[in-house]
Amino acid sequence: MVRLGKTRIMNSQILTGVIAALGLMANFGLVDDVRAQDGHGDHAADHGHHHAAFESGRLHVRVDGEPGPGVREIILIPGLSSSPEIWQGTVDHLAQAPQGEGWRIHRIHIQGFAGAPAKGNAEGPVAAPVAEEIARYIAENDLDHPVIVGHSMGGTIGLMLAARHPDAVGKLMVVDQIPFMGAMFGGPGATAESVTPIADQVYAGMANSPPDAYRAAAATTVTGMVNNEQARPAVLADTAASDQKVSSAAYRELIVTDLTPELARITAPTEVLYVKFNDARMTPEITDAIYQGAFASLPGVELKRIHDSAHFIMLDQAAAFYSALDAFVAE
Question: Rounded CA gap, 305 and 296, in Å?
Fold first, then answer.
């Protein structure tokens, strides 16, 4: 694990290497691999949860557990085209907490993903409005500094929430996401503005693709997102059940959203779990340098690389994920 302190300044040689690595990813087609890294779920089974009485056109919330003495609050945010079911193993794990140390678990289901009607997400950005709605959900339900765990796009939403509503968040865990995904598309010196034409092209290609071709391409890329073969069909099912336009718009938003300038506003203890990029040219050391550079402006952030996992760490390396989560929330 790497901890970035308040006065940490990246060595210029390392920073140069990070920028070069980001450019390498774009130049050699790793952009397609990164684009592939998002999805999952299966929401058919009823595990005893109920839906929160929260009216929103952007999301709805599944709640497991009841409030009570010693019960803490945790919000789980899935990624692009994913359902709350990607967290079922995590919910089951948290349910094993000793009496008096339990959790009330709030799983976000973003409208337009995994079979949910698009509603308010039918047009325009998705991640930023969802972050604002989660902030409203926390306030209206009097949640006391909940732990936030976000995977991929859910990690972006978690960063937005913690930076823009720092008093609302107790702790933040980001699972395999960086603050500015557009850097992987634009090469050295990329900015949100410079990658906007690329993002527009990506959006047009995704949104206007024939549905069968879109689903087939998504299915092909899912193989690289999940090593766990038993979990993979559920990832495919959620991706296929997601609204093509909503997923396309959300992906465009991720490319043009640079949260780097906002990281210093985050006051909640933050940990980032990540995996080595799925390409032989991207060594663990290069991956580490990319994440160190990406989060350099977030004081005290802890970075932890998880071995032998693809993008869905909680599915591929569940034991390692639960161990990291337990240790983080216990600190």
Answer: 16
Mean pLDDT in residue range 307-321: 97
CA nearest to 331, candidates 270, 263, 253, 248: 270
Neighbours of 317 (CB within 10 A): 21
CATH number of 2-325: 3.40.50.1820
Give domain limits for the chain.
2-325
Closest CA relative to residue 129, chosen from 149, 107, 91, 156: 156
pLDDT at 113 over 90: yes
* CB contact set of 323 (below 8 Å; sequence gap of 6+): none
Buried b (16+ CB within 10 A) or exposed e, 232-254: bebbbbbbbbbbbbbbbbbbbbb
Q: Is the pLDDT of residue 46 over 50?
A: no
**pLDDT number for residue 222:** 78
Record the pTM: 0.88
In the block, which residue shows the tokens 């079911």? Answer: 85
